[in-house]
Amino acid sequence: MASDNYDQTFECMVCLESPTESLMCRFCSKFICVSCVNRIFENSENDKKCPHCRVPVHRDDFTRVCWLQDHLKWVDDQMKLATTNKCPEHERVEISIFCLTCSVPICAHCLLSIFHGKHVQHDCCSLEDANNRIVSEVQSHIDRARQALDKGQNDLRKTQKSIDGIHQRKAQLLAKLSDMVTAIQVKIDEEIDEQLQKFEDKRKIFIGQINQHNEMITIAENEIKSKSKSELIDVKKELLSKFTALPSFSICNDSIITENILANFLVLPWQTAEFVFYNFTKRNSSSGKSVLQKYNLDYDQTWSLIIYPNNFNYKHQHVLSIFLKLDSGIPQPIEYTFIIELLHSSGDASRKYSMERTHSFQPGLRSGWESFYQVNCLKSDGFIWQNEDQIKFRFKIRTATILEQIKLLESHAHQMKDNARDADDVAARLQGEKKKIELKVTEQRKQIEQMKRKESELKESLANKKKDNEFIADERSQLKALKRDNECLTKKLNNFVEAKKRHHPEDLRNGVKQQKKSRHY
After folding, report:
1. 383-395 b/e with 16+ CB inside 10 Å = b?
2. If we measure between CA atoms, which residue out of 258, 302, 295, 268 comes closest to residue 407?
3. Distance between CA atoms of 194 and 115, rounded to whole angstroms?
4. Among residues 144, 173, 350, 488, which is most buried (max CB within 10 A)?
């Protein structure tokens, strides 16, 4: 009967045959033959489920059971050897007692010296009590194994999720970094391969450990069901040793992060700046007032360190509040990691107080801590320079990942291109205005030359006019002289005519001759 139950345990859950080549579902530990698994995955439906536990499965979830045939043969041999529950020392007496001293099952005659018993005066208990103890002990191991199995399956799911996250992250990165240089692509591929190999190795280890736990649980449960009390006592040590030999699951961190696995392989440099808060004791007496210090960092970014020296937290305590604000820079949101350090007055770097945060910044946004440090503890903790009455801060900032740095560089490059384009537009406009001015200057020069030519012509014409005027004046003076001569001649002629009338003609002729001579001279 026990053999029949044992054979049913290892039957295929679908065809109820005892296969020569068995597979086992890793979720319910039930057996199935290879042909039935092939029939399950023959159709093209996406959702494949285990016929017994109805859990969605892949072909890899059915693991090969290489030890089954050898184990069945060993069980059959053991069952043939243990056909009766008789004492080996007293063959006709049934085993009903358990010797606690020797940890072996015995009969009643083994306790009596008259029957030459070897367990006289040994501590004993009934076989039923011993069986209950063994069952309880084995069951506790089974419970611990089940807990470990649940943890292992949970770790396996997390590991698989991490592997899927890595694959997804790889696809995203390759899409984003398609235009990057070959050297960075090689580094990314190497980092991906390393992380994938690490998690793949973890997954294989978990699968192997889960299979071992499943196998051991199945064996232990079958032993409890199929073995008699004495037989269970016989195999107790072996079962416990097998449970002890089971590997423990490695600790899997619950906070497996895949977002930055591929982004943190390049260490970016910090940009640092320091700020000294002078007259701190006097200035922290007024609450609500802030101290602001501006810093110009790379890529044309302006940051402000804002300090509230006497703020109140939710517990109504006087606290030091510190914020970092991006005043101007790239308009796109960029993720930065920044550290605010409160330096110790002793100068010991190990005694400084620092806080770190990662936040996405855009122009106008700020991030920091409302309760950075309690004001009443600054002096006692040695953060106030007593002689100078001051406290010193140092802040460090950088992009959170290489991807954010690339985004910053690309945005800055686009901004520079836009600025260059605007500068080119301004230069082109100025060049056009220059050409217009040059054309105006050329036209004005032509006009000046024309005016000069006209001026020279006018001067020449004026000179000619002056000459003409002088000629005209000469002509006029000559004409006046001729008129005067004509008048004189007319007067003389008139006088001559009158004289002719009065004198002889010869006298008149002599007078005319004299007149011609005088005129000739």
Report:
1. bbbeeeeebbbeb
2. 268
3. 71
4. 173
3-state class of 160 per DSSP?
helix
Conformational region of residue 104, where left means phi above 0, alpha means psi within -120 to 50, and beta covers everything else = beta
pLDDT at 262 over 60: no
Question: What gap in Å lies between CA 487 and CA 479, rounded to an integer?
Answer: 12
Q: What is the DSSP letter of 159?
A: H
Other C-beta atoms closer than 10 Å to the C-beta of 414 total: 12
Please choose, from the candidates 26, 54, 19, 21, the residue with its C-alpha nearest in 3D space to the C-alpha of residue 40: 54
pLDDT of residue 338: 92
Q: Tell me the CB-side half-sphere exposure of residue 190, using CA atoms within 13 A.
A: 9
SS (H, E, C) 215-267: HHHHHHHHHHHHCCHHHHHHCHHHHHHHHHHCCCCCCCCCCCCCCCCCCCCCC
Q: What is the pLDDT of residues 207-224, one digit of tens each?
A: 888 888 888 888 888 888
Retrieve residue 272's tokens.
């640092």
Cβ proximity of 304 and 325 under 8 Å:
yes
* Amino acid at the residue 91: E
For 174-229, the DSSP string reads HHHTTTS-HHHHHHHHHHHHHHHHHHHHHHHHHHHHHHHHHHHHHHHHHHHHHS-H
Instruction: Name the CA dihedral angle for 225, 228, 229, 234, rounded to a multiple of 10 degrees.
Output: -100
Six-digit token string for 112: 């009596």
| Residue closest to 3 by CA, chosen among 23, 19, 18 | 18
Q: What is the pLDDT of residues 59-100, one digit of tens each?
A: 888 888 777 777 777 767 666 555 457 787 877 777 888 888
| Structure-derived torsion over alpha carbons of residues 49, 50, 56, 57, reported in degrees to the nearest 10 | -110
DSSP state for residue 302 in the 8-state scheme: E
Nearest to 343 by CA among 409, 394, 406: 394
**CB atoms closer than 10 angstroms to residue 514:** 10
CA 313 – CA 372 distance, rounded (Å): 10
- pLDDT of 120 over the 80 cut: yes
Kindly report the average pLDDT of the chain as a whole number. 76
In the numeric block, the tokens 């309760």 are attached to 371
Q: Give the pair of three-digit tokens for residue 221.
A: 């449960």
pLDDT value, residue 142? 78
Pairwise CA distance, residues 62 & 26, whole Å: 6
Tell whether the model's pLDDT for residue 477 goes beyond 70.
yes
Rounded CA-CA distance 393/352 in Å is 10
Long-range contacts of 33-38 (CB under 8 A, 24+ apart): 36/12, 37/62
DSSP classification of residue 25? E
CATH number for the domain whose boundaries are 271-400: 2.60.210.10
Among residues 144, 138, 150, the alpha carbon closest in space to that of 26 is found at 150
Instruction: Please give the full DSSP string across 107-134, using - where no structure is assigned.
Output: -GGGG-GGGT-S-TT--EEEHHHHHHHH
Domain ranges, ordered by start, for the chain: 127-265, 271-400
